[in-house]
UniProtKB/TrEMBL annotation:
Keywords on record: Membrane, Transmembrane, Transmembrane helix
UniProt entry tagged with the keyword Membrane: yes
Cleaved signal peptide residues: none
Residues annotated as transmembrane: 12-33, 45-67, 79-96, 101-118
Presence of keyword Transmembrane helix: yes
Lineage: Bacteria, Pseudomonadati, Pseudomonadota, Alphaproteobacteria, Hyphomicrobiales
Protein name (database record): AzlD domain-containing protein
């Protein structure tokens, strides 16, 4: 008998069920627990401050990794342009009302517009 891994069962529906059970369900349970418990937590408590700090640092680490050690097609864009896009997005976030979508749009303009203008992509 084969194990319950991704290639363990030959049925056509198995990979989809495997993704559901191993990928989506375990993370979604924690999201729903967070939604249900968020109303009972004090926003100024040390536990909430710690959770916010950890979440923010994880996002910063992912952004740093994408800028400094990219993979795939992002690697074709020079490091200076990736850092400039990060700086412009950061500045737009603070100067234009702390709106995340605006910051992302400004960073994307630099990230895609400058290489396109220089003929890199």
């Amino acid at each position: 008998m084969t194990g319950l891994d991704f290639h363990g069962i030959d049925a056509i529906w198995w990979p989809y069920l495997f993704i559901l059970l191993a990928g989506w369900l375990p993370t979604d349970v924690w999201r729903w627990l967070g939604v249900f418990s968020a109303g009972r937590l004090n926003e100024r408590s040390p536990a909430v401050a710690l959770a916010r700090t950890i979440a923010t640092s994880l996002v910063a680490a992912v952004i740093g990794r994408l800028v400094l050690l990219p993979g795939e097609s992002l690697e074709a864009i020079p490091l200076a342009i990736r850092i400039a896009a990060l700086a412009v997005g950061f500045a737009a976030y603070y100067w234009l009302g702390r709106k995340t979508l605006i910051a992302i749009l400004f960073a994307e303009i630099v990230l895609l517009g400058v290489p396109w203008g220089l003929g890199i992509i």
